[in-house]
């Protein structure tokens, strides 16, 4: 079987990272897996060792109608059995049209739980033979919007449990790198700086956390358009000594095992790769009950769930975990077990390969 994968992301995190994991898992199984991605994107080099071929091309987002022609040309050149569309940013619609016009079945991975209108869904999702939701939360959104149940399957995203594991950190390096003191409670949030990730909820919760744990420090990892506004809010609240903008990191496997708690108060979230990584590292979590988050942060088992936007509840959850080292260890161990059992690369590869076979067989028309 020959599969053409299309990923429009420029940076190697979130969905693009999952595509690399998938290509790595599919490599060497006798099939051919090609990748189309933006010119100069990080995924191009990362995927090259695993993909049969990598085709870089302009991908300019939702308004890039010309992507239809570029992908049609590639499809005619390579003649894949299936086109797997991995992201939005225009590649979902234009890629689906290109595959339809060339008579090749298309599969779409849906990684976000953003609502779409039923009228738009009725038109757009006709382009796809099958839709892969990365969480049951996303699958439920699609079903509510009218996508037929036999067209949508849940295949969870994965985490590299060898790279992300308990004990994988270096505590002296960690303390030095972030200017921390031994014994200082350390929280972190790993997310793009966009409104729906909930950074403001965490900032609102911090006074209550600091009242209970004055030495607590919060590291905010990531980048994005909301970063200047969050920086300004931190300063306006006088929290610059406790909340640190730590930037984008490509070495989270060293950082996460050294944390006491990972916080993720997003109001919308397809699944949450950073939460998978935290769970694999055995770190307990406090997060909002949104999208696919409860599939990783199982309340009372791997962490604590709050309602989205509830800063007092977020503060209580954080304080509960900081007060109880034994509970943190219990939740962390359960998170590691969950990552191993339900979010492995092997399980994701099996699920995707089964969908390709169904698409070729004509299921989910």
UniProtKB/TrEMBL annotation:
Record protein name field: Glycosyltransferase
EC number(s) recorded for this UniProt protein: 2.4.-.-
InterPro entries found in the cross-reference section: Glyco_trans_4-like_N (IPR028098), Glycosyltransferase_grp1 (IPR050194)
Alphabetic keyword roster: Glycosyltransferase, Transferase
Domain Glycosyltransferase subfamily 4-like N-terminal: 15-163
Domain of life: Bacteria
Gene3D superfamilies linked: Glycogen Phosphorylase B
Gene Ontology terms for molecular function: glycosyltransferase activity
Keyword Glycosyltransferase in record: yes
Origin species: Caldimonas mangrovi
Enzyme class: transferase
């Amino acid at each position: 079987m020959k599969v053409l994968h299309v990923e429009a992301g420029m940076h190697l995190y979130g969905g693009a990272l999952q595509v690399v994991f998938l290509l790595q898992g599919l490599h060497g199984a006798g099939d051919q897996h090609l990748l189309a991605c933006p010119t100069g994107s990080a995924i191009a080099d990362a995927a090259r060792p695993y993909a049969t071929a990598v085709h870089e091309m302009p991908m300019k987002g939702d308004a890039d109608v010309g992507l239809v022609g570029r992908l049609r040309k590639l499809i005619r050149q390579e003649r894949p059995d299936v086109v797997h569309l991995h992201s939005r940013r225009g590649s979902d619609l234009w890629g689906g049209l290109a595959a339809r016009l060339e008579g090749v079945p298309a599969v779409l991975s849906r990684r976000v739980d953003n609502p779409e209108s039923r009228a738009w869904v009725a038109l757009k999702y006709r382009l796809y033979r099958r839709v892969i939701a990365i969480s049951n939360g996303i699958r439920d959104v699609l079903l509510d919007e009218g996508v037929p149940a036999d067209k949508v399957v849940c295949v969870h995203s994965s985490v590299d449990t060898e790279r992300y594991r308990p004990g994988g950190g270096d505590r002296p390096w960690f303390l030095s790198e972030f200017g921390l003191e031994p014994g200082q409670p350390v929280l972190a949030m790993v997310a793009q700086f966009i409104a729906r990730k909930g950074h403001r909820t965490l900032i609102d919760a911090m006074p209550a956390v600091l009242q209970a744990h004055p030495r607590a420090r919060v590291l905010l990892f990531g980048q994005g358009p909301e970063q200047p506004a969050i920086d300004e809010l931190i300063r306006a609240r006088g929290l610059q000594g406790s909340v640190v903008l730590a930037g984008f990191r490509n070495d989270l496997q060293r950082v996460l095992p050294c944390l006491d708690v990972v916080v993720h108060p997003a109001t919308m979230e397809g699944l949450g790769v950073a939460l998978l990584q935290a769970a694999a590292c055995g770190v307990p979590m406090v997060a909002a009950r949104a999208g696919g988050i409860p599939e990783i942060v199982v309340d009372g088992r791997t962490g604590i769930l709050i309602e989205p936007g509830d800063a007092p509840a977020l503060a209580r959850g954080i304080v509960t975990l900081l007060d109880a080292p034994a509970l943190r260890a219990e939740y962390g161990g359960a998170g590691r077990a969950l990552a191993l059992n339900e979010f492995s690369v092997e399980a994701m590869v099996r699920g995707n390969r089964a969908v390709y076979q169904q698409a070729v067989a004509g299921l989910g028309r």
